[in-house]
Amino acid sequence: MSEKQRNAVDLSHHLSEFAKTLEGRPPPGSNVKDVCRLIFLSTEYFPIESITVEYLKPSAFPLKPTDAVPHGTVLGWIANVLTGKAADKIIHDWVGRVHKPAYNDWKTLIDVGSSSAWMTTISILLNPGDSFICDRYAYNAALLQGRARGMHAVAVATDMDGLSAVDLERVLAGWDEKARGFKRPRVIYTQGGIQNPTGLLITAQRKKDIYDVAVRYDLIIVEDDPYYFQQASAPYGSRTGPKKQTDEEWLDNLVPSFLRFDYEGRVIRLDTFSKTIGPGGRLGYYTGPPLILEKLAAFHQGFINFPSGIAQAVIGELLHRFETEGFIRWLRGLTAQYEMRRNWTIDALYKALDVRPKDDWSRALTAYAPSNGQMSEKFTKTASLMSFVPPDGGMFMWFNIHLHNHPRYKALARQTSPAAAKNQLSTELWTAIYDAGVTFRRGELFAVEDDEERAKAGEEDVFLRASFSSGPREEFGEGDGYIRHRAY
């Protein structure tokens, strides 16, 4: 790639049959971004004259994940919103500052949140019967939306650095349309920051490798990335702790988005404010090449409309007041809070269980029954209960429950099938934990392949996803203890 950036390549051949019927366009002489400004017109004809909003200061939370959570109201400043400032301009400038797309004519477009954005994106790119590639365990709502539209999710292996570029190439190069029953995928769905549900971070080198494969096989990458800014400052248990850096240095040191490597306009990035400013606002934004965003804008005009004007005004005013420096400071402090909660959770696991490194080279940890004799005698204390990798950020932990060590697993598998044995034991475990007042998400909700396919592939265990995003510190050990007391 030359140092001089070029415009996006022509991706019109990727449009779905439905997208080809969409004719909505921004007014002549305008660009895609201007569509978002229309919602602010004629506000004097609505009964709400003003809304008073109290904003927190960018420095509301401390930067160190070991610091205590502040109590009480953190006074910010009072603002009257619905001022008419265009939030889209702020967003476009923000994307340019943070992600630095590697081609010239990229655009941004406000949407009503990432879940809706994914649904809209596959509607304009894929036809019923088409397929998309994703991690073997992927965000369950994305899988549900694709399946509901008659689309096939195709699993690619994942390791601790993210979706495997090697396995991606293997799947594409060996594609047998007759055996599969559908055409080779044209879209990759993945996260560029913290992966949901595993909590792991895709490295910059892995993103480069995936992008190179996408160019060779003419694929589009949809980067759904709500947890991008929640990259932890240091691994769990780091002896050095978070390094000192300015807010600008912190932002520049985040593992970059796929956009940074996108010199052909093959990436459609989905962002949301739900994990940074607050859930329920139904406000996010796309970044991508002009043709794709024109079709997305047309879809919104005809079928969804654009986000609430109030949501745009409140969040837009907040961003206007914070400016880039203030918003970076806010994100950094917020991330430190989630990093602190991650550390609390793993500390509780160490307290409740005998946690050891899985081996000498990986970051994975394995948990065994504690040596205080609280486990059933039928379960040997040398057999592992579960394993996990401390998340690189985000809000979740992904536990691999070692059902293959359960004293009833082999007998049940012989009596029924491995898939049925897994389902029965995992249901018993999840139900016992739920009845005790603790909620985990069952891993099969995130699985691309069904129970039988995973069992045939040799997968004996099951997964649980836990959230550490809320709740007082003293409750963090309870859920971990229930795995110990109820699992066997």
Task: Explain briefly what this protein structure is.
Residues 108-351 form the Aminotransferase class I/classII large domain. By secondary structure, the protein is of the alpha+beta class.
- The CATH first-level class of the largest domain comes to Alpha Beta
Count of beta strands:
17
So, the CATH homologous superfamily of the largest domain? Type I PLP-dependent aspartate aminotransferase-like (Major domain)
The quaternary structure here is single chain
CA-based gyration radius: 24 Å
Report on this model:
InterPro entries: Aminotransferase_I/II_large, Class-I_PLP-dep_aminotransf, PyrdxlP-dep_Trfase, PyrdxlP-dep_Trfase_major. This is Aminotran-1-2 domain-containing protein. Residues 108-351 form the Aminotransferase class I/classII large domain. It comes from Mycena venus. One of its GO terms (molecular function) is transaminase activity. This protein has 488 residues and is an alpha+beta fold. It has two domains: 12-337, Type I PLP-dependent aspartate aminotransferase-like (Major domain) (Aspartate Aminotransferase, domain 2, 3-Layer(aba) Sandwich); 353-486, Alpha-Beta Complex (Aspartate Aminotransferase, domain 1), CATH 3.90.1150. It is 35% helix and 15% strand. It has helices spanning 17-21, 87-98, 114-125, 140-148, 165-173, 177-180, 204-216, 247-252, 290-304, 309-352, 409-415, 418-435, 451-456, 476-486, and strands at residues 52-55, 77-80, 107-111, 131-135, 152-156, 158-159, 162-163, 187-190, 220-224, 267-272, 284-288, 354-357, 365-368, 384-388, 396-401, 441-442, 462-467. The strands form five sheets. Strands 12-13-14-15-17-16 form a six-stranded antiparallel beta sheet. A five-stranded mixed beta sheet has the order 3-11-10-9-8, with helices on both faces. It has a two-stranded antiparallel ribbon with strand order 1-2. Helix 11 crosses helix 12. The longest helix has 44 residues, at 309-352. The N and C termini lie far apart (56 Å). 44% of the residues are buried. Residues 25-45, 72-85 and 482-488 have low confidence and may be disordered.
